[in-house]
Design brief:
Largest interface: A-C, 97 and 94 residues
Shape of chain A: globular
Order of helices and strands of chain C: HHHHHHHHHHHH
Number of domains of chain C: 2
CATH topology of the domain at 70-260 in chain A: MetI-like fold
CATH class of the domain at 70-260 in chain A: Mainly Alpha
Shape of chain C: globular
Helix content of chain A: over 70%
Number of strands of chain A: 2
Number of strands of chain C: 0
CATH topology of the largest domain in chain C: MetI-like fold
Helix content of chain C: over 70%
Structural class of chain A: mainly alpha
Structural class of chain C: mainly alpha
CATH superfamily of the domain at 70-260 in chain A: MetI-like
CATH architecture of the largest domain in chain C: Orthogonal Bundle
Largest sheet of chain A: 2 strands, antiparallel
Oligomer: heterotrimer
Largest sheet of chain C: none
Strand order of the largest sheet of chain A: 1-2
Chain lengths: 295, 362, 283
């Protein structure tokens, strides 16, 4: 029947696309990460070579060993994860009350407030980071304002610091925290809060015992949406960060573009992926548990 | 096959993975009938309807419409239209476009479409609303658009899934009569699915009661109500008092059923051997209730009124007989004076005609 | 019923306060960006009150060939990406919810989520490695440029489109399609006259989302663009590495203005349509 032929293509087209441009590249990265660097184009050894009358595989874990032994990579990894974790926490602390306030706002205001959250997200990401350069520079607006107010006598070094990177990440990813939180909080049944109040719970207790536990999926989703891209971030640290303190994304890009060491870059990518996969698996588990609890 | 037969269903079954939705149903519906499939939720009535429309493939059995086997006919080629429970009006089309949609599929000329749609909208009294979108209509108006959309194709058979379910009570009664009038006027066979027994009783020429995927009884509303074939049917339709017992020593007049301490004379047409287990069903409105002080003679069962539910046009009584059996009795309040009515805790006598007893042996 | 019930007293006041602060945090940088785009001075943050406000940087912007070329490439890439991603993402959404053998569906659903959670840098790196290898083995794609950027962006964006379309499709009332079928429409007619028109808003927002993703991306483009192609974000990024430039303030202002206009109109239109639909019935 014609219908089932259509439905077969409906699956096949996106499936083939993803196999070709998502799965295959992965396999490539993995294989190259096991290869070794060569001065050639492409700059890595063939995976399999005809050497002295026999096929020889050119694949080993040397790159991983190298990364493990070189302190630079470990430091970059832990620094990235630390920055991403702190930025995620900041986003949560700022974003939760904002999402809550929007969910509480009168119906006709909500779509406009939400629009106001999304609007900066739709303007270019780079341009938003750029705005902060203007604010944080030594002769930037923040220093100008502080000097004018007499809080400081000489300008502070704000740009090219960890603080600047943190601000940049929080600023860029705040909407990713707010949107899933809002989507969750907006669905909460207000009668639950009224029932809790009727049973004698104070405002704080109601928030702590009702709203917060029910919003857990939103919190987890928001945190993942901020944490994962933040950990792999490379534009923000290269524009706002110290040149000596490297985040892993920048290390990867440098390995790739500057050193042309594709195998090591590939190995860094594989490790980053595995590190980031762990929280995802945790999220899946927590979702499963929630649905088993019938929440 | 008789000429006046519109639908014939032969041992039809439908299984979904583990569950059996419809099991070995055979049925025939005559031309011009309003046939109601009545049953609780999950009894298989909707699945049966969807098989008639062609949305579900039967696991076994076959469906004939006007003598044609429907096995390989897709829904869009069947001479059947369905009015969906949710109405399924296309939200992006106006009332007119909704009704015209079916005719456009038949490649009818534009002027013909225009004429027939107007005619149909007139018939369901929606003339002025042709340009509206479904979201701008009230529930009753939407229902009529859905009806018009299904009828304008002049199907041999119209299927209606809970046609009045989404309407409020007042509107439902009104629409019910309109629906019957329209059906008579167009002469199209209706198969209606409903869980509402009142709706089924007032619409149908015949009712098929379904339970757990099977048709348990087919009959006119009167047959279904007054002569239910099984205890399920008796219980499902209306309310009923059930006495369990067995045939005892026959008295002079006829058979007697022993139900606990009660001795109940059976209708004279019943003929069964002694000791047969049976159940007697008795409709609450068939029982006559009198104050004991008003009846001198020693006839009928005695009891005490435990609860009275006053409903305006009638009252429901819960009476406990002296042997402990509870009974429900419905009495029409044909007098205004409240003092005439029997009150709680009064001693009463209950009488009924033996012919009003329904004898069930299932 | 009033929305102000329990729970909106202390918690509400605090959260509203945070909302105001948050909006200040989100908008002050953008506003300063816009204000200083009218500054005459080359020093971005020092207001030259003698010659400002001026449109000097807007003029320079329009005379910058490299920038205009990059912007034109970005528009083309984004439009192609969005169109391709809508086709692929919609097919994927339909496949996931409605059709296909179970095993390939499971494979598809496992893969479609990956671009959403993968750092862009990994997506970019892996695609570049693939393109290089393919070129070496098959001679295709010959060199890197617009085609490779579009492929890379579409792979990322189709995942987002699939999410948007899937959520609309999941709430799609299938009895509408059955009703059309019941009224004699063929499956093809049902798709064109019922399914597609009703899915249209989701497809449109998927298209816009994909367009923005592509328009905004610098990381993936950096990897797969090759030496000869430069998208607008790539141009901006290379410029920013050298330091601030008032031209970019002007560019940012234009972009923000455009986006605000499009989003504002969109929201206003959709709200007006909702209101029309909910207009009270007079009978």
């Amino acid at each position: 029947m014609g219908r089932s032929r259509i439905s077969r293509w409906t699956v096949a087209i996106p499936l083939i696309w993803l196999l070709l441009f998502l799965a295959a590249p992965f396999v490539m990265v993995f294989l190259i990460s096991l290869s070794e660097v060569r001065l050639a184009m492409p700059p890595y050894a063939p995976f399999i070579e005809w050497v002295a009358d026999s096929w020889r595989w050119n694949l080993d874990a040397d790159n991983y060993l190298f990364i493990w032994q070189d302190g630079l990579y470990f430091e970059a990894f832990s620094y990235s994860l630390k920055v991403a974790a702190i930025a995620t926490l900041c986003c949560l602390l700022v974003g939760y009350p904002m999402a809550y306030a929007i969910a509480q706002a009168p119906e006709r205001w909500r779509s406009w407030l939400l629009l106001a959250i999304i609007l900066p997200f739709w303007t270019s990401f780079l341009l938003r980071v750029y705005a902060w350069i203007g604010l944080l520079k030594t002769d930037g607006l923040i220093n100008q304002a502080l000097l004018a107010l007499g809080v400081i006598t000489s300008p502070l070094q704000l740009l090219y610091t960890d603080f600047a990177v943190l601000i940049g990440i929080v600023y860029s990813y705040l909407p990713f925290m707010i949107l899933p939180l809002y989507a969750n909080l907006e669905r909460h049944d207000r009668l639950l809060l009224e029932a809790a109040a009727d049973l004698g719970a104070s405002t704080w207790t109601r928030f702590w015992r009702i709203t917060l536990p029910l919003s857990r999926p939103g919190v987890v989703a928001g945190c993942l949406l901020v944490f994962i891209p933040a950990a792999g971030e490379f534009v923000i640290p290269s524009l706002l960060g110290r040149s000596d303190q490297l985040m892993i994304g920048r290390v990867l890009a440098d390995e790739f573009f500057a050193n042309r060491d594709w195998p090591v870059a590939g190995a860094v990518a594989m490790i980053l992926l595995i590190v980031l996969l762990l929280p995802m698996v945790g999220f899946q588990k927590s979702i499963q548990r929630q649905s088993e609890d019938g929440v | 096959m008789s000429l006046s037969e519109c639908v014939k269903i032969e041992s039809l079954s439908k299984h979904f993975a583990e569950t059996v939705a419809v099991s070995d149903v055979s049925l025939s519906v005559g031309r011009g009938e309003i046939f109601c499939l009545l049953g609780g939720s999950g009894c298989g009535k909707t699945t049966l309807l969807r098989m008639l429309a062609g949305f579900e493939r039967p696991t076994a059995g076959r469906i004939l419409i006007d003598g044609m086997d429907m096995a390989d006919v897709p829904p869009n080629r069947r001479p059947v239209n369905l009015m969906f429970q949710s109405y399924a009006l296309f939200p992006h089309m106006s009332v007119f476009q909704n009704v015209a949609f079916g005719l456009e599929q038949e490649r009818v000329s534009r002027t013909e479409i225009d004429r027939r749609v107007r005619e149909m909208l007139d018939a369901v009294k929606l003339e002025g609303l042709a340009g509206r979108k479904p979201q701008q209509l009230s529930g009753g108006q939407r229902q009529r658009v859905a009806l018009a959309r299904a009828l304008v194709k002049r199907p041999k058979l119209l299927l209606l899934d809970e046609p009045l379910g989404a309407l409020d009570k007042k509107l439902r009664e009104h629409t019910q009569f309109e629906l019957v009038a329209l059906q008579r006027q167009l002469g199209i066979t209706f198969v209606v699915v409903t869980h509402d027994q009142q709706e089924a009783m007032s619409l149908a020429t015949r009712i098929g009661v379904m339970n757990q995927g099977r048709i348990v009884q087919v009959g006119t509303p009167d047959e279904i109500y007054e002569s239910p074939a099984t205890r399920f049917v008796a219980d499902f339709i209306g309310s009923v008092n059930i006495f369990e017992g067995h045939i005892g020593n026959s008295g002079e007049g006829g058979l007697i059923a022993h139900c606990g301490a009660l001795q109940i004379p059976l209708p004279s047409r019943v003929a069964m051997p002694d000791g047969t287990r049976l159940a007697l069903a008795l409709r609450p409105e068939k029982i006559r209730l009198q104050r004991q002080s008003d009846t001198g003679a020693q006839v009928g069962q005695r009891g005490t009124v435990e609860e009275v539910g006053y409903l305006g046009e009638s009252s429901h009584y819960r009476v406990r007989l002296d042997d402990g059996t509870p009974l429900r009795v419905d009495v029409v309040n044909h007098r205004r004076d409240a003092s005439q009515r029997i009150q709680r805790a009064e001693r009463v006598t209950l009488t009924w005609s033996a012919d009003d007893l329904i004898v069930l042996t299932d | 019923m009033s929305r102000r019930g329990y729970g909106s007293l202390a918690a509400g006041r605090f959260s509203r306060f945070m909302l105001v602060l948050g909006f200040l945090f989100l908008y002050l940088p953008i506003i300063s960006l816009i204000i200083f785009s009218f500054n005459y001075s080359r020093l971005v943050t020092v207001w030259d009150s003698a010659n400002s406000p001026s449109l000097r940087w807007y003029q320079e912007l329009l005379n910058n060939e490299a920038l205009l070329g990059a912007a034109w490439l970005s528009v083309q890439v984004a439009a192609l990406t969005a169109t391709l991603a809508v086709v692929l993402g919609t097919l994927a959404a339909f496949a996931l919810l409605r059709a296909g053998p179970l095993r390939s569906r499971a494979l598809l659903s496992a893969m479609i989520g990956a671009p959403l959670v993968m750092p862009e840098i990994i997506t970019g790196l892996s695609l570049l490695l693939l393109f290089v290898t393919l070129e070496q083995w098959l001679g295709w794609p010959a060199g890197r440029g617009m085609l490779t950027i579009v492929i890379a962006h579409a792979t990322l964006a189709m995942a987002y489109v699939a999410v948007v379309v899937q959520s609309r499709l999941a709430s799609f009332d299938r009895s509408l399609e059955e009703a059309a079928l019941d009224l004699g429409a063929t499956p093809t007619t049902v798709f064109w006259r019922i399914t597609l028109p009703l899915m249209w808003p989701a497809l449109l927002s998927g298209w816009l989302l994909a367009f923005t993703l592509s328009w905004d991306d610098v990381v993936i483009a950096q990897f797969v663009a090759g030496p000869n192609a430069s998208t607008l974000p790539m141009w901006v990024f290379s410029k920013l590495r050298l330091g601030v430039s008032p031209e970019i303030n002007a560019l940012a202002t234009l972009v923000i203005l455009f986006v605000a206009l499009v989003l504002g109109c969109g929201t206003w239109l959709s709200r007006r349509r909702e209101r029309q639909v909910q207009r009270p019935v007079s009978t």
